[in-house]
């Protein structure tokens, strides 16, 4: 598959990285790199440290040791989306208003809100208060945020959580297209995610005994 490089070609490189919570190390001295058109899947048991690693790479938690760097971006460029396992939906705003809010916060550099909602299968619910969405519909709305603001690096925590089989296909399609565009992503997942081109995928298994 050809990478079209619609994004600046980034590389995220971790060197001897250790991460953890509350003084407890959850990963130690790990090195990896992910570059434009590629992805890294984080796998492992509950409590294994996947979310903590994503939060660390998002700059929300400080590493315990080692370092990581994102090469290929301007100093002040906002290059990443962090999509946590909570959907961060405002229940009193409509579905479309939620998306418009995030487009304003993150920059309306991607698809128009209505097109993004159509893409994730929520176009018919645009005017519904988002608090009424089902679990899977809420997840779809969270994923639509990735589409309204173009950013090359996606850090995703359980992107397929609560989704039906068509939703799983949607996620595969969005992720594959993102890599086609020269984006990259790191995703923590308990579900299998299989992209058409397996050469693009690496897996980091964590939380295992040495
Ligand atoms: N603020 C905190 N203080 C102390 N420990 C914490 C804190 N937040 C999370 N933890 C612990 O850190 C460990 C790793 O949690 P994390 O959410 O990174 O795991 P995970 O691999 O994403 O798990 P899951 O598959 O269940 O989502 C867990 O044991 C959790 O209880």
TrEMBL record:
UniProtKB keywords: ATP-binding, Cytochrome c-type biogenesis, Membrane, Nucleotide-binding, Translocase, Transport
Residue ranges occupied by any ABC transporter domain in the UniProt entry: 12-210
Single biological process term from Gene Ontology: cytochrome complex assembly
GO molecular function: ATP binding; ATP hydrolysis activity; transmembrane transporter activity
NCBIfam families listed in its UniProt record: ccmA
Homology family: Belongs to the ABC transporter superfamily.
Listed name of the protein: Heme exporter protein A
